Fold this protein.
Amino acid sequence: MSASTPSPAGGPLVGGPADPEHDPTAAYVLEPDYVASLTGRIVSTTGESKQSHSPINGAPVAHIPQSSEDDVVEAFARARRAQLAWARTSIDHRAAILMRLHDLVLDRQEEILDLVVWESGKARRHAYDEVLHIALTARYYARTAHQHLDTQRKSGVVPVLTRVEVNRVPKGVVGIISPWNYPFTMALCDGLPALLAGNAVVTKPDAQTMLTALLGAQLLEEAGFPKDLWQVVAGPGSRVGMSIIDKADYVCFTGSTATGKLIAKACAERLIGCSLELGGKNPMLVLRDADVERAAEGAVRAAFSNAGQLCVSIERLFVADQVYDRFVERFAARTEAMALGATLEWGPEMGSLISQDQLDTVVAHVEDAVAKGARVRAGGRARPDLGPYFYEPTILEGVTPEMTCFGNETFGPVVSVYRFHDEADAVARANDGEYGLNASVYSQDGPRAREIARQIKCGTVNVNEAFAATFASIDSPMGGMRESGMGRRQGSEGIHRYTESQSVATQRLLRFSPVLGLSDKSYATVMNANLRLLKKLGRA
Ligand code: NAD
């Protein structure tokens, strides 16, 4: 373990779990001044704070100031003032700032990675995925800003005489409520298109990973976004999250399906829009003609990236009879050989779970499955020797519907493998349940795999890849069908959700009523002739 590795973020001082509040020999893992430079951004007047701890070694990380409902009101007031000026800036100006953010994120990646790892306990390689995703998102939206936001000409009802333009008007202030699992990208990726479209943002990141989100806010300001345009509040979702919904013009939520339903109801009460990126029980299909080696390698990343705490990670693997034994043998061998570790260093292929709650869920799902007859093909144990919340990457066989992990999201490093004989049956089983976030299909026959993909009720499907091909292709929409969500991030949909479309039609000469003493009946006859003519001319 390298809990004492020096960090560009200023720490760590030591790697012990003692609380410096009560033990003079103990110290925080990060320099207190550095932490204060970040937490100072939280809008908070309560004088209350909440201690966070690192999953790497249990050591205290920071006291996070808590926001009251009045603080949320103040955050919105500041954001609204900033938004009025921001909406008048040019698209080119905003896009140039996004491009600077791209460079800044790459330049400051060591600091970002250190914070992500300290707060989440994940492997450094998985923290790097977050840097990558923000750089990709910033570049994509900067380069395509005009394509999404420029006023567009549309055909008017009367050719030549009706001129129609559609404007993209910013919603105003967007509320973003984000989870802890990808703390850097989840805090920022949905906000970048919101800012580009001329909005301000008030965000409530998850309590466990607040510093990473605050570093994101600092980088936005350093890139050139006005400081007040991006407000951060902190506190329990049930209180601070709901206060955000009371004030926002639009809400972007990422988190569990249960919370997503509460958010949707609260937004409906106010008749404001929302996008919901929720949970999944994502399937992978390994078809009979799959490259088994490649599929096994893909399954390792699919199931165990970020210790399975990834919305798009695979928890159900359906494998064709013809390749089942070879695949499972290869997948299990590869899983058992994985390098595990809770450390700031590069190297481990999997890091820690984030919290005791997550560990409890994983242990409960595996114990329940084993008690009801499932077989552990790899892993299956907590590893306190590696970290307080560490759990081995685990493969289960013989999972049946009465087991909790059959249909419920574990959100941990546990995958169930099932054999199938018939592809139609595999698709039906993949579509079983209420979720529909992400799927993966392995086959050497591209057209057939894409045909199967079309039958799977998921918002993204990756062929010969786990999840990264769709997630990193920012030009394509990403989100869930069914109980995995509403709306999409990324692509045009990911930015248009933050705008109101406004149609402006300018009418010349013609009026839409009888003229020159024409009776209503004659007017209708003239209009009928016009409609028939326009149809003949092929007009839409
Ligand atoms: P969660 O729903 O408990 O919390 C997510 C966020 O919502 C946190 O910031 C939390 O403080 C806040 N919150 C909680 N209750 C709230 C309430 N009543 N009102 C307003 N805000 C509230 O989810 P979690 O356990 O932190 O995250 C894991 C879940 O998120 C998993 O189900 C995972 O699949 C999902 N997730 C989905 C995506 C996606 O893109 N689809 C991405 C990451 C995580």
Summary: Residues 177-181, 186, 204, 206, 237-238, 241-242, 254-256, 259, 262-263, 277-280, 311, 409, 411, 437, 480, 485 surround nicotinamide-adenine-dinucleotide (CB under 6 Å). Residues 124-149 form the longest helix (26 residues).
